Amino acid sequence: MLNMLAIIQLFVLNIIKFTDSWKDTLPAMLIGMIGIFLVIGVIILFTYLLNRATSSKKDE
Q1: What is the pLDDT of residues 11-36, one digit of tens each?
Q2: CA distances from 35 to 13, 23, 24, 57 (A)
Q3: For the residues 1-6, what does the mean pLDDT come to?
Q4: C-alpha span between 26 and 24 (Å, rounded)
Q5: pLDDT of residue 9
Q6: Which burial class, exposed, middle or buried, applies to 14 when counting CB atoms under 10 A from its CB (0-12, 13-18, 19+)?
Q7: φ and ψ of 47, to 5 deg
Q8: Alpha carbon distance 31, 21 (integer Å)
Q9: Angle value at C-alpha 56, between 50 and 59, nearest 5 degrees
Q10: How far apart are CA 60 and CA 56, in angstroms?
Q11: Across all residues in the chain, what is the average pLDDT?
């Protein structure tokens, strides 16, 4: 039980020690997320354009 309390205390002290780290990491994470959404958007657009270009027209 004391071992668990020591581990929790060490974890909490490390969190308190690095509370300002989000100021450094948040902009990098934001740029990464924007990049991911842009790449997904380009893939969706490319797939849509390929589907439109290669689909056969049905005569009705």
Answers
A1: 777 777 666 777 888 899 999 999 99
A2: 34, 20, 18, 36
A3: 76
A4: 6
A5: 78
A6: exposed
A7: -65, -40
A8: 16
A9: 150
A10: 13
A11: 85
- Phi then psi dihedrals of residue 18, to 5 deg: -110, 40
> pTM of this prediction?
0.59
Q: How far apart are CA 21 and CA 15, in angstroms?
A: 10
Q: Which two tokens stand for residue 20?
A: 């300002």
Q: What letter does residue 1 receive in the DSSP assignment?
A: -
The per-residue b/e assignment along 27-58, b for 16 or more CB within 10 angstroms, e otherwise, is eeeeeeeeeeeeeeeeeeeeeeeeeeeeeeee
Picking from 49, 13, 54, 52, the residue whose alpha carbon sits closest to that of residue 5 is 13
